[in-house]
Amino acid sequence: MSQPLPAHSAQVPVLALGDVLLVSLQGELHDGMAEQLQQDITQRISTDRMTGVVIDISGVDMVDSFLGRVLAEIASTARLLAARTVLAGMRPAVAITLVELGLTLPGLVTALDVDRAMELLNQRGS
After folding, report:
1. STAS domain: from which residue to which, for each copy (predicted)?
2. How far apart are CA 53 and CA 15, in angstroms?
3. Residue 91's Cα: distance from chain center in Å?
4. What is the three-class DSSP state of 17?
């Protein structure tokens, strides 16, 4: 049974599309909010038996090293819980910044948009 996210997470929409969570990041994500989002996603994967997570960052202008680490940790935790993670909508400037910071984001598959991310999750085996 799906439970609503706590009120303090309301700024980051997390939608369930079948057995996939869609997380849409918009604007700046403060450190505490990023950590709470990580906990919320992990909880939802576990309690709702999700098999995939799509994190849409098309609304994010900048990814710093902290947010990059949080995204990688979400993917790692999801993988341990048997869910796959796809990062969608990365802007070219964000990709360049991640390379300059030396962040490789292990465990994250990328897609140009949410539709392609959903296709990747549907195509890939477990």
Report:
1. 10-121
2. 10
3. 15
4. strand
Which amino acid would we find at residue 37?
A: L
Q: Which amino acid is at 116?
A: R
d(CA 102, CA 39): 25
Residue 54 burial class via C-beta count within 10 angstroms: exposed 0-12, middle 13-18, buried 19 and up: buried
Contact present, 118 and 83 (Cβ < 8 Å)? no
Mean pLDDT by 10-residue block, N- to C-terminus, for the chain (126 residues)?
45 88 89 89 95 95 86 93 96 90 83 96 72
Yes or no: is domain 11-114 CATH 3.40.50.1980? Answer: no
| Domain range summary for the chain, segments of one domain joined by + | 11-114
Beta strands per DSSP E along the chain:
14-17, 20-26, 52-59, 84-88, 109-111
